[in-house]
Write a structure and sequence with these properties.
The complex is a heterodimer of chains A (124) and B (401).
Chain A lengths: L2 E6 L3 H10 L5 E6 L2 H11 L3 E5 L7 H10 L8 E5 L4 H10 L3 E4 L2 E2 H15 L1
Chain B lengths: L1 E2 L6 H15 L8 H15 L3 H10 L3 H12 L9 H15 L7 E5 L5 H10 L4 E6 L2 H9 L1 E3 L12 E3 L4 E4 L1 H4 L2 E5 L11 E5 L9 H14 E8 L2 H4 L6 E6 L2 E6 L13 H6 L3 H10 L3 H14 L3 H14 L2 H14 L4 H9 L3 H10 L8 E2 L5 E2 H16 L1
Parallel strand pairs in B: 2-3, 2-8, 3-7, 8-9
Antiparallel strand pairs in B: 4-6, 5-6, 9-11, 10-11, 12-13
Helix pairs in contact in B: 1-3, 2-3, 2-4, 3-4, 5-6, 12-13, 12-14, 13-14, 14-15, 15-16, 16-17, 16-18, 17-18
Classes of the chains: A alpha/beta (124), B alpha/beta (401).
Chain lengths: 124, 401
């Protein structure tokens, strides 16, 4: 069964790496470069997982998480939040906002893909 | 890959495309832009420089070291055990039954094997006795392949197949028994001579990175690396470059390429023990002669078989050998007779159908409507029901164009 993964990140490089590292897993990718567009797509396609950058133009990552968690149809969607360099206060805030897990920059593409696959396998 | 935060833009991608095309034959374009970006990020991450600096270095001075650093990044295939399971289904269900008659250990080649998962998967599918060679341009990947040690990620959520044992945590190791049949060597498909005599070659997601001319050259050399009747397994994109010496065989969603038998310039010595014994069995003898490229002998034996009994199979065999010689009218007449004698003779109808008679192809599909996929249909070259169905469907599609 094809799964939908939404990537909300203004970096084309990060989006490319996420897609390439997850290729071959029967996944349809949807991309947005800012939070507002990402939210519109999420509501339309109800993705199976979201990869989200904390620092986004438009709606920022934390607001994005809170909005997803407050939406009855989307609240169970796993979200992998990409945060800047390690910072405990930010991590706490991210989890409180509803991120399922987070990763720090610099991002390890392989680990990121493995984490997304974990979400998708749990949902099966 | 570790993403350090450098943004790899269009301009850098175009520069990378230029140096790769100029120095390696590798071709990137808008359609595989993501692969190039991820590859550049990977190369930069491995070299601990910015991608922009890496490309600038090559532009200044395209040394082998600098180029290798880039090539390593952009050619690391994302691979895992039994990637494209449909290819392995075709290997088990079409290729291996076809090769079973060889009566000798089989040789396979995983060309562009990356970290070895494909080579080990082939070995697992082919069973003990087969030898598998894995080659790649990326030496670091080959080291990983030889270590035969993989994380759960290499299984992509599937259960570990037999031949892989857990070595604690999320790690797996290929068993010594499987490893014994697999070896890895460095090979640049763009350069060095290819190894020869393979029954099966897997070369997947590789040609798509070569320019049209470079891909055609690789294809020609892959064909030469195959033993007669050997099979080439590629992805759909790669198959587009197929050559005339390779016949396409359709199986479910997969297009397999099979090397057609070469006609030797000289007649091989006759009277070898296998042939002498086989003469008891006219059909078998004719088949063997045809397999060995002895066409006149094959035609003679097939005519003798038909003279003894005009069975559908004997008629079909004669049709095949005269057809190979170019006598299409006689071949068609023989097949017509085979089908008249036994209207349920599916492979005869298939032969007529593939020769352009769509009515016969529809008859084939009707005859097979209730048959099991894995049932083998009798004929001089027995075929599985699923395969025949696919060929008939493909034939009908072609006819409708």
């Amino acid at each position: 069964m094809t799964r939908n993964v939404l990537i909300v990140d203004d970096s084309a490089t990060t989006r490319a790496v996420v897609k390439v590292y997850l290729s071959g897993n029967d996944i349809k990718f949807h991309e947005a470069t800012d939070g507002t567009a990402g939210m519109a797509i999420a509501r339309m396609i109800r993705p199976d997982a979201i990869v989200l950058d904390l620092k986004l133009p438009g709606m920022d990552g934390l607001t994005f998480c809170r909005t997803i968690r407050a939406d009855l149809r989307l609240r169970d969607t796993p979200i992998l939040l990409i945060t800047g360099s390690k910072n405990q206060a930010v991590e706490y805030e991210a989890l409180a906002a509803g991120a399922t897990s987070f990763m720090h920059k610099p991002i390890d593409g392989t680990a990121l893909a493995a984490e997304v696959m974990k979400y998708l396998e749990k949902k099966k | 890959v570790i993403l350090a935060g450098e943004e790899i833009g269009d301009d850098l991608c175009r520069r990378a495309e230029r140096v790769l095309a100029a120095h390696t034959g590798l071709r990137f374009h808008d359609g595989n832009r993501d692969t190039l970006i991820a590859g550049l990020a990977r190369a930069a991450s491995a070299e601990r420089v910015e991608a922009a600096e890496l490309i600038a270095r090559i532009e200044r001075s395209p040394t082998e070291d600098a180029l290798q650093a880039l090539v390593r990044g952009v050619t690391i295939g994302e691979t895992y055990f039994f990637r494209h399971p449909e290819h392995f289904a075709a290997l088990r269900e079409v290729i291996l039954p076809d090769l079973a008659a060889r009566g000798r250990p089989l040789k396979a080649w995983s060309a562009g094997c990356a970290t070895g998962e494909e080579a080990y998967s082939i070995a697992l599918a082919m069973g003990s006795g087969a030898s598998v060679l894995g080659t790649d341009i990326n030496k670091a990947s080959l080291e990983t392949a030889r270590r035969a040690h993989y994380g759960r990620w290499s299984l992509r959520g599937e259960a570990a197949p037999a031949g892989l044992v857990s070595v604690g945590g999320d790690a797996f190791e290929v068993t010594a028994a499987v490893r014994a049949g697999v070896r890895f060597e460095y090979l640049n498909l763009h350069g060095a001579p290819y190894p020869q005599g393979f029954d099966v070659v897997f070369c997947r997601n590789v040609l798509v990175y070569f320019s049209t001319e470079a891909a055609a050259a690789v294809m020609e050399r892959l064909e030469a690396a195959l033993a007669d009747g050997g099979w080439l397994v590629m992805t759909a994109l790669d198959v587009a470059a197929a050559r005339h010496g390779l016949a396409a065989v359709y199986y479910n969603e997969v297009t397999l390429l099979r090397k057609t038998r070469a006609v030797p310039n000289t007649t091989p010595a006759t009277g070898t023990p296998t042939i002498a014994r086989a003469e008891q069995d006219w059909i078998g003898g004719a088949r063997r002669a045809a397999d060995q490229g002895q066409h006149e002998r094959a035609v003679r034996l097939a005519r003798e078989a038909v003279a003894r009994a005009r069975t559908p199979q004997a008629l079909h065999l004669l049709a095949l050998v005269v057809g190979e010689r170019g006598d299409r009218d006689e071949a068609r007449a023989l097949l017509r007779e085979a089908v008249q004698r036994d209207p349920d003779y599916v492979l005869g109808r298939l032969g007529l159908g593939l020769d352009g008679d769509d009515g016969e192809l529809r008859a084939v599909l009707a005859l097979l409507a209730d048959r099991r996929d894995d049932e083998i249909l009798p004929g001089p070259e027995p075929l599985a029901v699923s395969w025949v169905r696919t060929m008939a469907q493909a034939g009908l599609k072609r006819g409708n164009k």
